[in-house]
Design goal:
Elements: E1 3-9, H1 12-18, E2 20-24, E3 27-36, E4 39-48, H2 56-64, E5 67-72, H3 77-88, E6 94-98, H4 108-118, E7 124-126, H5 130-143, H6 145-152, E8 158-159, E9 162-166, E10 170-176, E11 181-183, E12 187-191, E13 195-204, E14 207-209, E15 211-213, E16 217-223, E17 235-237, E18 241-243, E19 248-250, E20 254-266, E21 279-284, E22 287-297, E23 300-312, E24 319-322, E25 330-338
Helix pairs in contact: 1-5
């Protein structure tokens, strides 16, 4: 069943008008399911509850999402950072809800100008009626349907953000399928440990399934895997294939970067220039990796990463670059080439 993941910056109250709350951790999730002509269709709202205090949950929401939603109560520096982040993540479709506190006012024309300047002129401005917003989100789902289907056909990339042992089941990994499809009984590689495991069973939204596709948040029971091979930043992919008899050669779906040449496209709202020795953070496919700039030559910088950063071999996501002491913290997005 198709799932539309929506990164939301806004209130718990508004999210609950649209969908039912399901998970309440650093990132709150809300789900609404409706039957369409081709079967059930799911809206999954991903709301980083501790933003702006914590940046990483927001960046993870952007990694998993195809569209965005922003509730605006005032115009301030946080709004600027939100707009920069959505634009840098390439999320060019979304909804804006202006909803100031009782007795206060937000200039809609000014907000529209901010979104246009950031490159988000296609986002639409809506009221705060939950049912109407739900219909608008389903309309956006129709607009990105071809993209959702195409990414299901891509090689499997499944970042893991939680793992634990369950009595009677064993080791379970949880994460968003970023691209491709994972099936029961698939053999998997656990990066960066290069460990191995087999997909014993799969659950999506508490239902046992035989396959989970791009967009699904899946719980995956692993057989023959070691718990020490799972951790923050673990990515599951299918093994590489080298078959001389059939002349088949299929590499891993991701490329491991320990050092990269980075070409940064800065946000139009970002005034800070990067310098040699600067510490940066890269966000891609729910990874959050620290790097240090080794050298700069024109528009390119050499970055050494503190831990491996994995970039999709095909159609990679925009890699968001952040500096935690900058305002806004998002510098922009980057193309990374392996050194």
């Amino acid at each position: 069943m198709p799932v539309l993941n929506i990164a939301m910056v806004g209130s718990d109250d508004l999210a609950k008008e649209i969908a039912k709350a399901t998970d309440q951790r650093d990132v709150h999730t809300y789900v609404h399911k409706e039957s369409g002509s081709d079967g059930p269709r799911i809206l999954s709202i991903i709301r980083p509850a501790k933003f702006p205090e914590r940046l990483r949950p927001f960046l993870n929401a952007l990694s998993a999402a195809k569209v965005g939603m922003v509730e605006i109560t005032k115009i301030d520096a946080t709004l600027g950072e939100v707009v920069v982040a959505f634009a840098s993540a390439g999320i060019d479709k979304g909804l804006v809800i202006i909803n100031p506190p009782q007795g206060e006012w937000v200039d809609e024309d000014q907000v529209e100008m901010i979104f246009k300047q950031a490159g988000l002129g296609n986002w639409s401005f809506e009221g705060n009626d939950g049912i109407d917003l739900r219909e608008k989100l389903y309309a956006l789902m129709d607009q990105v349907a071809a993209d959702l289907k195409a990414i299901q056909q891509a090689p499997l990339v499944l970042p893991v953000d939680q793992h634990f042992n369950v009595k009677g089941i064993g080791l379970v990994a949880i994460g968003y399928v970023q691209s491709g499809t994972v099936n029961v009984h698939d053999e998997l590689i656990l990066l960066p440990a290069n460990g191995e495991g087999n997909a014993k069973s799969l659950q999506v939204m508490d239902d046992d399934v035989v396959a989970a596709v791009a967009g699904d948040r899946v719980g995956l029971a692993l057989r023959n895997a070691k718990e020490e091979h799972l951790g923050s930043g673990t990515i599951l992919v299918r093994p590489a294939v080298e078959d001389k008899k059939s002349a088949t050669s299929i590499p891993l779906a991701v490329v491991q970067h320990n050092s990269s040449t980075m070409t940064l496209t800065r946000s139009p709202f970002q005034k800070r220039e990067l310098a040699v020795g600067d510490i940066i953070h890269a966000s891609a496919d729910l990874q959050f990796v620290v790097g240090r700039i080794e050298s700069i030559d024109g528009g390119d910088a050499i970055v050494n990463w503190e831990s491996p950063l994995f970039i999709r071999r095909e159609n990679p996501q925009p890699t968001l670059i952040a500096q935690l002491d900058s305002k806004p913290r998002i510098m922009g997005n980057a193309i990374l080439k392996l050194n």
